[in-house]
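Q: Hi! First time doing this. I have a protein sequence and I read that you can turn it into a structure. Is that right? Here it is:
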Amino acid sequence: MKAYALKRWLHDEDGAVTVDWVVLTAAVVGLGIASVAAVSTGTGSLGTSISDSLSNASVAALGTLGTGDGSVAAALRELLAVDESTYAGWLEELAGYDDAMVASLYATWTQNAVNALDAGDRSSAGYAVDAVATIAATMTERGIDIPGDLPGSEELDARFLDMDA
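A: Yes, that's right. Below is the predicted 3D structure, encoded as structure tokens:
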């Protein structure tokens, strides 16, 4: 009887399936641990690299609107009527003008914006207010004083937005 039970036990495959699953599960757990170890060392060095970059970075003050390379931060003001390429073209064109011409353009475009706002012409007002904001940003970047007797870009923006109300 003992020999028969031993023979049956040797040929029984029910336990073999369990052993297979244990081996497979151990392999998956091992791969998971290896993956975590590989990724954690990479993220640690990436975090250090980002930290070093951010600690050495400089930020333009809001009053200067850039670094003088013509890349005035458009993100500081949402454009009302023109697209980014028109804005970039205006900046490029303004870069070729001397300070007196830029100040003259500011006065002219401010008057155009006021006239369009007074007339309720939303399309012309948006275009003119965007032009004034672009010229004002260029003036600020160059250190040119904006005339106190003319409305500022922020005031014109507010008047334009009030047209919606």
